[in-house]
Structure formats: structure tokens, C-alpha cells
Amino acid sequence: MVAPRLIIKKSPLQTIGEEQTQNPYTELLVLKAHHDIVRFLVQLDEYRFASAGDDGIVVVWNAQTGEKLLELNGHTQKITAIITFPSLEVCEEKNQLILTASADRTVIVWDCDTGRQVQKVSCFQSTVKCLIVLQRLDIWLSGGNDLCVWNRKLDLLCKTSHLSDTGISALIEIPKNCVVAAVGKELIIFRLVTPTGESLEWDILEIKRLLDHQDNILSLVNINDLSFVTGSHVGEMIIWNILDWTVQARECNFWDPSAQLDTQQEIKLCQKPNDISIHHFTWDEENVFAAVGRGLYVYNLQMKRVIACQKTAHDSSVLHIAKLPNRQLISCSEDGSVRIWELREKQQLAAEPVPTGFFNMWGFGRVNKQASQPVKKQQENATPCSLELIGDLIGHSSSVEMFLYFEDHGLVTCSADHLIILWKNGERESGLRSLKLFQKLEENGDLHLAV
Amino acid sequence: MISAPDVVAFTKEEEYEEEPYNEPALPEEYSVPLFPFASQGANPWSKLSGAKFSRDFILISEFSEQVGPQPLLTIPNDTKVFGTFDLNYFSLRIMSVDYQASFVGHPPGSAYPKLNFVEDSKVVLGDSKEGAFAYVHHLTLYDLEARGFVRPFCMAYISADQHKIMQQFQELSAEFSKASECLKTGNRKAFAGELEKKLKDLDYTRTVLHTETEIQKKANDKGFYSSQAIEKANELASVEKSIIEHQDLLKQIRSYPHRKSKGSALCSAETEPTRDQADQVATTSNPDESADADLYACRPAYTPKLIKAKSAKCFDKKLKTLEELCDTEYFTQTLAQLSHIEHMFRGDLCYLLTSQIDRALLKQQHITNFLFEDFVEGDDRMVEKQESAPPKPSPGRPPSRSPEECPIPQVFISVGSYKSSVESVPIKMEQELGDEEYKEVEVTELSSFDPQENLDCLDMDMKGSVSSGESIEVLGTEKSTSVLSKSDSQASLTVPLSPQVVRSKAVSHRTISEDSIEVLSTCPSEALIPDDFKASYPSAINEEESYADDSEGAIHFQASISPPELAEAEEGSLENTLSQTDSSCCIGKESDSLRVPLSTPAHTLSDPDGVVSSPPQRYRQKDQGFHVDFAGENASPSRDNSSEGFPAFELDPSRLLASRDVSKTSLDNYSDTTSNMSSIASTSSDRTPSSAHPTGPSSERHKKRAGQNALKFIRQYPFAHPAIYSLLSGRTLVVLGEDEAIVRKLVTALSIFVPNHSRHAKPVKHWVSSPLHITDFQKWKLIGLQRVTSPAGAGTLHTLSRYSRYTSILDLDSKTLRCPLYRGALVPRLADHRTHIKRGSTYYLHVQSVLTQLCSKAFLYTFCHHLHLPAHDRETEELLASRRASFLKLNLGLVNEDTKVVQYLAELLKLHYVQEPPGTGHPTLRFDYVPSFLYKI
């Protein structure tokens, strides 16, 4: 038996060399404005996004130029939740609003066009940890130790009793005016009672508690009109029917190598519990993608099984994943890297990874990624598809908390190193700059096109 | 950047001669006159035998009303520089050529003394005995205590090299004008302050006298006044008068025409009328005033003082020093400007010309030159901007702003300076109009090519000089006919490579010293001027008009003298009428009777020994024959012609007069322009260019050292090519080492290959000891990194390995390089380890020239529309990409990784061009996912 530490080192982290032909991000722009961990990114429109974090400020950026548009100061403590508040079609006020909740027990509504603080609520008993907007009803809900319902004017419509001291960790909307809240190990389903002819009062009623998880629920997302999915700290993934709240499917052996392969006993031994906690989900029509510990798993909804996995996609926990339209999956992790994966039908084994640098020759201290270690493919033999690493983005020096994908402007990542990095497709940017250049030439009247 | 002076210096004229000259001539902007005395076997660096000073210096002298001409200070202030050179004697010489007797006092028709806002005069003179040639810039400062309120001063640039003075006249004049303007502004300020204090004194005195008179009146009520009382009353009256006079003076000095902020050339035109008014000359000054003035002393925190009616003896008073005459801040600035001038014109003429050409060419590349140029250019730009703003501080302005107003450029010979030279010179209104016309003409003519920028540096201008004593000969001799031609007619001696040059010369000539000739040639003393001076103005105007108008006539006039040239002239004028007009205008104006071959503009006649200069392109075809002749030592027909004509003129002053009569203008008007150049017949040695201090400004030394170290690097490291490729393609190169000095040295050396992002900062960090961050790679393209052996250093190396994809790493301690592969052809040319270049500065220039070529490729690539944008809607991105690739390969001849260099430069160009204002905005970090390799020695 080998010592666990060594095993970790030898764990088959897939690496990619410096030659990444499919990686489109060949240009980066570092955005500096925050002075603490940046945890949240939220897209405002097709060219703007807002960032927020532990320093309590919200910064609005231009995703194309990297220009800092606004800095919103109002919170005295770290920001715990941020959400956009879509304006109503009928509403004359077209400005983009966002809601931010902070550990200072306030929620502020900001106007992202002017930077104005529209309104502030500070009557909370506890820190608001999650926010959702029910656009259909034009209300929003805040979840802390209790669940409050607010209207656009920030009037408290109704609230639940105290739910738990740990508070609501996640909140989603489901049909029939219901919401699901993850409180500890439990899922609680609430129904909103909207004003009707008889009563003008709003009310929120607890309908059901679902107790199927063994450990704290870390992630909760809607995956389609039929189901939502939850993931827990011990790696249980449960897919629920969205209408009758029954368990549709359940996968809780992410950590159990026997279900996948038998050869990797050591991995099981060395894996600590947090290595299998499910931090984030993303989904598309066919699959649910789960960030489980350091690995990535693709669960096919029809086949009801994991079709592809990357057990050690990163050096440490994967914090956020997103599916891109082109069968690509992006993941970011505490190890400070962002990786781009492609889901491929497994026909043949992918090429050997390209060797990385020559640092070991130089004695550059500890090499964190073993060069030219062949990835053991056999672990994936059981799965019909594979996740192939097509590129990684190295820039942050600390945990990458979240990222945001812009179709037109590239990728925005935020990190515990206080930085936001804008990753861009160098070729496209070059073309855009040329376009701008010739536009300017034309404006100046210096452009003479030969016939 | 483009040309290498040490190459030029070794060029032998003979070799040049032997060449059949069939290859296309160098474009004129590249040509540098060959060393003129090579044929005589002279060592171009040999010291002038006649010169008693070791290198050029600036002398400021005053014509003191008490002791006569005296030297005040020299720049540099080092006795070693001027050695045994007799400053007193030379002061006498240069002061004696000042025609500017600008008097203040009561003009005949006026009740009060008038200040005369005199313009500076600029002359060139030579002194055979001292072996010295000087550009002399006269100016007058105001002093309440001085006779007529004026103190004549002059600043002289003294060099042993006649050609330097002649050919750099424009530049000298421009730079000295700045200094003079600064000094005068400070002086006006000080003078105004002085007047204010004086007024307070007078006011106080009046009060006291008034009180005394009252007391006397009371004490003495018998109805008659005692003699004492009458005396008091007289005194009071004279004080009253004095107050009014001083108030008037103050008003005058304050009303000194404010310079307009627009194009500098226009300034003088706008300000001219007011100056004309002020230019009335008064003959006498009020004795009371001067008496009063004697007692006046300047002191800070002023309390009014009683002024006694008695005046001290004229010679008892101590005249203010130059420093006292000028506001301190302005004075310091003036000194700074002067030492800047000294710096700027230091060294061999050949070197100066080369660097001027260099700079002029660089200016043309305003889109690309930020990439590899030093910030001197950026500074220039700033300076130019400032110049276009109000160029000189006006008296009313607070001194705190003055640093902006009086920029002290670093290395600066630019269009701006030409303009300001034009501007600083008194120009008649009418003349200015003419000037504007010319400008328009030039614009249309040479729209694609800024004429000033290119051609001015080649300007072989010879300014009129003045001989006033036996030992100061006027420059220009029997020895060389062509020199004569220069001396006689501005047009011929200058090489009007472009109309602008000609024009600006004409202007400055016109304006230099309206009356210097009369003063000098007709009467040695300055005393008699006033009337003439006055009279000269109107006629000068007429003269100008006539010049502007009948330039055609001038051509014919010349043509009549030498028919063969006429054909050419007419051809030329057909071909390029306007430019011809320009030159002929000058000719007509300054030397009507001189037959100046029209081809002259195309040739440099300035040097008798066969200075070669290329003709402007438009003449080239036609003038090829001439050119060949000129290139050779043999006198060409045209030259013969000129040599026939000129000596006669030169030797016969009456003819000079006659010629002026022909032009229907008074002799007085342009005497200055025809100020003679006498060159000392005796000395060929006198002509040897001064070679004392060929070193340029400090940045030059820096470049040299960087070049030397880069050369060393290339020779020492076989992997220099990929390292340089990394720099050129924008991949950050980290130089890792333990020894700070070594790392810094190498970083400095390699920084010559780093393209700049903007004008403002070079992306080079010489020394860092903390771990690098992603932002560092965004900001810096060349980093010197400390290798720390302690555990703390592990973090540094760890981050380095983490960010290895963004960097190339040159490890100085283990002599390894980790970077992408390079297989191009560009860098081997740039950095050939077998190169025969030995000197750092030469190598630097070589690098600069290769990089310039590269920049032009990048420029082409960036600004070809169809390479980046589809020609029509149906074109796909793939098509564009292939078009780009083939353009890079076939049209620009780039192979493999070289394309990446050009692409990177193109991105920088785009960013720079698009940004508003240029240089701002976020630099992006561009990188490629390419494998790196480890190179070892």
C-alpha cells in the first residue's frame, strides 16, 4: 500500500500541454477593481456583467472592452447573493436592476445604468443567502433563516416562520406557484398563495418536506420542465419530478469506484468526503453535468446513468461548471484553473497528452502537474462517452469561484485572488480591431478603396 | 534610426566619384554631405588649427553702456571649453554687428517716452584670427536704469566649423529664438515689476513733497513764495510728470502683444501691427527720469521710498546683471534652453545632419514610430503640441505656468522649430500673407510628403553674415565660387529642397536684421539708425509685395543671364511652377542680378569642395547630369556659370547696390539678407569641422551601451534568436538571475527589441524580486527576475512555472532558455552572431533599421483593407485568412514564425490607432498555445 499523499500525486489528473489548438482563448485582459474574493458574476445584458464578492462592492463591467462602468458601494459586508431583476415589459422604467444581498443583513436594489441605489431593505433577522425572482408574479423571494416574499416596491408580502439556523442554501422556482428550498438535508416545498377575489393577502405555505438526502444539500437546479436535480455533500444526486416531487432517479455512487471500475482502489481510499460533494450542476437537453468533488460526471437523463466522467478533472474541488452550445463543458476549480472539455463519443482513445514544459530539468521546485503522465483510460471504459480536455486557462493565482460565458465576448472568470479575467478569442478580437480601425479610417476620410 | 553615422563618416569622396553613378540616386532625404576635405587628405576629426577652443560653446555678451562690449557667461561654464579664446575680443566683435539701436525715449512727436518692441536679429559671422564662426543672436532687454531703457545683449553660438553654423542656421535660429523669447518675457515681467515699484516710489515722493509744500504754504502766508517753496513746487511738478511717464511705460510694456496661440507662423503676423506702432523711435529720454531711475533699487517686500531729485553720476551706478534683469524663473529656463542648445548642436555636423534626417523621417511614420522609438520622440510630440499652444508666456501670465510655456525639449529639431523660427522673426503683415500663400502652394504640391520634415534637414542654408571689422571677415571667399554664390544670394546658397525651406528662409532672412547691412557696411556705429529704421518699414513692405507678385519676372531675369538655364527653368516651372516660384522669388528678392541657375535648388552649392546632396525627386530625372557633375569635384557647367557670376558680385559692392536698385527697393530694406559671408581665404584648416565632442545626448550613450550589450548577448548565446523572437512576438521574456547588475544589463540590452505599446511607457521591468503575477505579463514584455535560493524563492519559481505558457525564460545562471521554437528569417538578419558590426551604436542603428523595415511591413499588413475585412459580403472568414497568409508570405516575404511578429505588431498598431487618445486603454495579453523548448549552450 502506498501512502495516500503519494497517491494523490499520482492521481490521473489529465493534463494538456502548451499546444492547445482547439483552445480559442488567446487573449486575456485582467480586470482589477475588487479587493477581496470575487464570488459572483451576473450577466446584465449582451455586453455587460456585474461582479460582486467579499469586499461588498458591486462592479459593472463592459465585457467587450473590459472597461469598468460602475462601482456600486452600499454594502458594509460581503455579498452573499446577487440576482438580476428583469424590468417589466409594461413598466416605463427600463433600467436594468439588480438585487444584492449581503452579510450586513440588507438587500439593495441597484440601477445598473446609473449606478443609483434604488432601494434598500434592512429589516432582515439573518443573512440572506439566496434570492430568486418570480417574474411571472413580479415578486422576489429572499432566503435566510426564513423565507420572505417581496414585491417590486420592496414591500414584505409574507414570510415563513424560522426554518433553521443554517438557513436556506438554495432556492428554485417550480410550477404551480411553488418554490423548493434546500435547508440542510431537507428539501422544503412552499406554495405561494396569491391574492384572489376573496383575499388580498399574500401567503406562503409549506407543502412538503423531502428527506431523501443523507447529507446537506449543496446544489439545487431546475433541469427542464419535468424535473429538478439536487446534489448533496456526500455525492448523492437525486432527480425529482417537478410536479409531484417524487424521486425520478438517484445516483449516489459517484464515490463508489465499483460502479465504474474496479481497478482504482486507491482512489477510493484516499478520497476524502469533500471530494465527492456535488458543488454544481449544469444541464442540457440530454444530460446533467455534475461537478463532483474534483471530478466531472455526465449523467444521461434517458439512459439514467453516467455516460462520461473525469474523476480528477482538477487538482481540487470543481466549483462551477457550464455547458457551452458546442458540446463543450467548462469547469473552474479551487486550484485556480479553468478547463475546457469536450464531450465525445468514445470511438478511439484520445491522443496522448502532449508533454509540458521542462521545468523539472531546471529544478523549479515542486512540479504541480506531472508532465507526460499518460492518462489511464481504462477507467472510462465503462462509459460510452468521454470528456476530453481541449484546453485550460491559467491566469488566476487562487481559486476560481465562478465564470460567465458570453457568446460574443468570451469568458469571464472571477477568483479569490481578487481579479476578474476576461478571456477572449484572439482571432476574433483581432478582426474586431481591424474593423474598428477601418471604421475610424473611414470616419477620418482616410479610407480609399481601390476598385 | 535609418542611417548610420559611422558608415557615413568613412565614405570617401573619391570612391563616390569613381562610381559611374548609374544606380538610382539615394533619395535626398537620406543623403548626407560627404566630408568636404577628404580630398585634401585631412583627417575629418583633426582639430582646427586656428581654433583656440576645444569645442562649441555659447557666449552671452552685453554692450554695456559703461564699459562697452563684455562677455557675461558661457555655456558650458567651463574655462576648459573656450581655452585661450579671447572672449572679450569676440564680444566686441559680435556686439559690434548689432544694428539694433532700439531707442526708448521721446519720439519727436510724442510727449512720452516710447518703448520699442524690437525684434531680435540673427547673423552669422566668422573670425579668421580666432578660427571661430558664430551664429549671433542679438536682443535687447529693458532696464529702467539703462540709457534709453534698453540694454543690448547677444547670445552667440561659437563653433570652429563654419559649415555647422551655416547649415544649422535654421535650427540655431529657432532654438535661440526660443531662448531669447523666454529671456525677453522674463525681462518684460521684471521690467513691469520695476516700473510698478518705481511708481509707488514716485507716488510716495509726491505725497511727501505735497505735504511739505502745504506746510511751507502755511508757514509762509505772506503771499509770496520763497525760493525753497518754488523749488519744492518744481520738484513736485517733475514728479507728477515722471509718474505719468512711468504709467505710460507700464501701459506699454503690458500691452506687449500677446502671442496668439494659433500656428506660430501666423502669430507674428497678427502681432505685427501693434509692434509697428511701437516701433517708433524716440531719440532722447527724459533726463529726470534717468536721474530718478538711478536711485531706484529693486528689493522684495517693497516699501515705497522717497526719491530724491538729485541724480547720481551715470558711472556711479551699478548696472543690473542679466539675472537681475529677468524674472528668475524665466532666467533659469533660458539657461536651461541654452544648455539644451549646446547639447543639441554638440558634435560633428555630419552627425547632426544624420540625426536630423533621422528624426524627420521618423516623424513621417507617425503611425508606426511608437513601436520601437524612444520616448524622445514622444516628448517631441508633446513639445510640438505645446508649441502650438501659446508658444511663449506673455507677461501677464503667472510664472507658475511658465514651464509649460517655455518647453525645454530634449532633442528637438523639428518642424515645430522651423515654424517657430519663422514666427520669432519680425515679419511684415504683407509678407506673412505671402507666406501663407506659399504654404498653401506647398500643401498642394507635396501633399503626400511633408516637405519640411524631409527636406529641411538637408538645408544647406547659409545665412548672411556681416563683416564689421578687419578681423571678422564676412563668410565666403574667393576660394570657392560656390560659397560666393551662397553668400550673395540666399536662394543660391540655400538649397531649396522644398519650397517651404526656401520660404522659411526667405522669411527669416527678410526678418533677420532689417538694417544690419546699413549698420555694418555703411556706418560702423549704430547711432544713426532711427530715421533709416523708420523709413525702411514701408519700403520693406513694398518690397515684399513685389517679390510675391513678380516672381515670374525674377525667373526671366535670371534666365536672361544664363539662357541655358532658362530652358530648364521654364521646364521646371511648367513642371512645378509653384516651387519654382518660390525659389525664384527668393532669388529675385535677394539677388536679382545674380544669375542663379535654376538647377541650383536641386544641388547643394554650399560646399566648394563638392558636398553632395541629392536633388528633390521632382528634379531628379532632368538634373541627373548636373548631379553627376556635382558629385564630382570638377566644376559643372552650371557651377562654372555661378562661379563666373558670383565673384564679380561679391567683389563689387556697387554692383550689389545696383542690383538692389534694379529691384526698385531701397538698399536698406534687405541689407541683412545680403549680408556677406566672408570666408577666410587663408585657412582651409578653418573649415575642418569641429570634432571635439562627437558624443551626443545621454540617451545616445545609453543606446550605445544597450547595443553593445545586445551584441554581446547575440555572440554569447546561441539561442539568442528564439529569445529575440519572443520579444518581438510579444511573449514576455523573463530574465532570471541572481546577480542584479547582470540581469539589469541584459534587460537593458534586450529592451531594444521590445515593441512599445504606446508612447508613454516601455514594457520593460528591469528587476523584480517578488513572484510574478498574471498582470505582470499583461504589463511587461521583458522582466528581470531575481532568483532567490531561499524557500521564499520557491514561490517565485512556482508561479513562473505556472505561467510558463505566457513566458519565455532565460536563465542566466544555468545559461538556458525555455521558449517556443523559432524558424524564421527575420531574427537571423537582426541578430547575426557573425556580424561584422563591432560598435554598439552601429549595432543599435542596424537593429533600428531592421525594425523600421519590420514596422513598415506591419503597417502594410495592418492597413490593407481586404486582408482583414471582406471585399464583399460573400467572402468567408476562411478566404480572408488565406488571403492574409498569402500576403504575409508572398508580399511581405515572411516565413514561419516571422508572420507572428508582424501580426503582433499589427495588433499593437491597431490598438494604438483605434484608441482615443492613443496609448490609453487596456493592454491585452495575447498569447499562443505553442510548445516550448529548452535551449542550452
Automatic annotation (TrEMBL), chain A:
Domain of life from the UniProt record = Eukaryota
Any GO CC annotation of this UniProt entry: lysosomal membrane
Annotated compartments: Cytoplasm
Q: Does the keyword Repeat apply?
A: yes
- Write the record's keywords in alphabetical order, separated by commas: Autophagy, Cytoplasm, Repeat, WD repeat
Subunit structure, as described in the record: Component of the C9orf72-SMCR8 complex, at least composed of C9orf72, SMCR8 and WDR41. The complex is formed of two protomers, each individually consisting of one molecule each of C9orf72, SMCR8 and WDR41. The protomers homodimerize via an interaction between C9orf72 (via C-terminus) and SMCR8 (via N-terminus). Within each protomer SMCR8 (via DENN domain) acts as a bridging protein between WDR41 (via C-terminus and N-terminus) and C9orf72 (via C-terminus). The C9orf72-SMCR8 complex associates with the ULK1/ATG1 kinase complex.
Role description: Non-catalytic component of the C9orf72-SMCR8 complex, a complex that has guanine nucleotide exchange factor (GEF) activity and regulates autophagy. The C9orf72-SMCR8 complex promotes the exchange of GDP to GTP, converting inactive GDP-bound RAB8A and RAB39B into their active GTP-bound form, thereby promoting autophagosome maturation. As part of the C9orf72-SMCR8 complex, stimulates RAB8A and RAB11A GTPase activity in vitro, however WDR42 is shown not be an essential complex component for this function.
Name of the protein: WD repeat-containing protein 41
TrEMBL record, chain B:
Keywords noted in UniProt:
Autophagy, Cytoplasm, Guanine-nucleotide releasing factor
A GO-annotated cellular component: cytoplasm
Chain intervals with Low complexity compositional bias: 673-685
From the UniProt entry, list the residue stretches annotated as the region Disordered: 264-289, 381-406, 545-650, 666-707
Q: What one GO molecular function would you report for this record?
A: guanyl-nucleotide exchange factor activity
* Pfam families found in the cross-reference section: Folliculin (PF11704)
Biased composition range(s): Pro residues: 390-401
**Composition-biased stretches (Polar residues):** 574-584, 635-644, 686-698
Q: Could you tell me where this protein is found in the cell?
A: Cytoplasm
Question: Which Gene Ontology terms describe the biological processes this protein takes part in?
Answer: autophagy
Q: Which residues form the UDENN FLCN/SMCR8-type domain?
A: 48-910
- List the InterPro entries: FLCN/SMCR8_DENN (IPR037521), Folliculin/SMCR8_longin (IPR037520)
- Family named by the database record: Belongs to the SMCR8 family.
Can you name this protein?
A: Guanine nucleotide exchange protein SMCR8
